[in-house]
Amino acid sequence: MKPLFAKFRNTRLQFRLSLPIVAALILLLLSQWILYFFLADFIRENLRSSAASVTASISSHMDTRMRSIIERLYYVQLDPSIQDNLTGYLLGEDTSTEAVTMSKLSYSLPLYKAVEPLLSSLLLYTPKRTFTSEGMPMQAGYTFESTKLWQALQAQSGQVVFVPPLLDEIFLMRRQVIPIMYRFRVDGYGEECVLVANLDQEKFTQYLLEALPADGSQTLVVSESGEVIAAANHSAVAAIVEDSQKMDQAVHAQTLLDMDLAGESYLVSACPMETAPWTIIYLQSKQAALSQLSRLRYEFTAVTLMILLLSLTALASIVDTVTTPLGKLCQQIRSSENQHKMLDFQYPYHDEIGILAKSYNSMAEHIQHLLEEQQEYIQKLEAERVRADEEQELKRRAQLRALQAQINPHFLYNTLDSIRWKAEAAGATDISQMVTALATLFRIGLSRGEEIIPLEQEIRHVESYLTIQKMRYSDQISYTLDINPQVAKLYTVNLILQPLVENAIYHGIKENSRAGNIRISARIVGTTLQLQVADDGLGIPRKQLATLQSCLASGYSDSREGYGIFSVNERIRLYFGAEYGLILESEWGKGTLATLNLPCITISEVDKYVSYSDRG
Description:
Layout: H1 2-78, H2 80-91, H3 97-114, E1 119-125, E2 130-132, H4 148-155, E3 160-162, E4 166-167, E5 176-185, E6 192-200, H5 201-210, E7 218-223, E8 228-231, H6 235-242, H7 244-251, E9 257-261, E10 264-272, E11 278-285, H8 286-336, H9 352-426, H10 431-446, E12 452-454, H11 455-473, E13 477-483, E14 491-493, H12 498-509, E15 516-525, E16 528-535, H13 542-554, H14 563-576, E17 581-587, E18 591-599, H15 606-609
Parallel strand pairs: 13-15
Antiparallel strand pairs: 1-2, 1-6, 3-5, 4-5, 5-6, 7-8, 7-11, 9-10, 10-11, 12-14, 15-16, 16-18, 17-18
């Protein structure tokens, strides 16, 4: 009875195993055909959307190359060697310099032609003479004013003039070229000069075709009037070129067009170029694109039949062999099962799969426990990271306060030295004023430990500093204040103007041989409080200025020079963010302008910018 019952149970298990496999097989076959129909619709829709996308891509590809050529013409006329020789020749009266100029320009022009493969020739026209590179023989009796290029130049007013393809009128090689002309003027010379770049039409066409996908598509470039600039040698291209009505429809089309060309159906898409008055026309063969769909149909049929044959063959073997491994797996699970709490997984049969489900529930419970422990560990690590960040912030603030504390004693020594010098040199008349200004300076500078103070206090602080320096340097220094009373009610970080003024005195005015003026202003630009300290002193050398500007923009502090301004910039960025800070502008020999950009803070907003580490 027991073997008979076991055999009956195995038969029922085989049936239950076979049923979902057969159902899955049917669904698989069904899904294969459903997928085919979806793919067919997708290919048809994608064919239309990809045509516009490819057209835009080709247009961008050609725009990039044309922009490079135009920029190269611009750089040619900016070349110092070409500018100097051309200026000397056009403005000079000595005709003997013509040969020298020709020699030098003939050396410079080929350098630009050599780096641009599409350039067939490069010519420089001036009202006095036409120059070209060595090794480029010109037509006998050639004059630029007698060419079609000259007519096109007179007919168009833009700086860059595009001419339809023509047989080269200038050089003996007589290639089919696409001329591009660039007008410019030489300083001091009243008439226009012209750079003529002849693009090799064959190479231009080859470059155009390199952007095409390998799917039977074709393309051409036409002007606004329908003239062909470059085109593939293909029957469909020839058909649209010969039919002026279809060409006009393609050039001015706003959407995809369906056209019959050379006995075949095409999708036609157009996209105007940005750098030239030309339009890219893209032809996509429907037959070439949909041939993939036909091949896909045969492939799906073959795959479906193969799956069906293999599945039916394997199903009987799989069902027979699954029950034996399940029995062995059941014995193995029973022998290795531990005492974990079992999840209540509902399974209606008490066979090997039911036992496997219980073991799975035990394993799942154990894994869940491990995941919870892992989550707790992650939370601890995150808390440690936050605490480390807070400690680093406190350290940074402490370092900034230490830097600020170093400024006050340094200035105290300078001021006491000034008082001593003033007393010895001129008696005690001005000592009271200097001491009063010094007291005001330190009282506002300390600000009872507050780092964000009213702007009017910061102005009084720097004015006290200027009073002392004015007494010390007398007529060598003067200053003006341009502060709107409403702006003065706003709040700012303390001790940000005095280092800039000190920098203006010691590195700008003091180093200069003449008297100087310092102007301090405050205004609101949009939502930004802008403080400026300007001086007419010696200024900053260009190389040193570039270094300082780079360090200020990146927030990097260079301790070797500009200590005060880096301290000011870092404190502003620390309190208000990287979008605020110090901008330094200067011109050697004329002066320096330091601009502080700050948020407009009222008294009710101060607490938002002062962290717990600043509240004592």
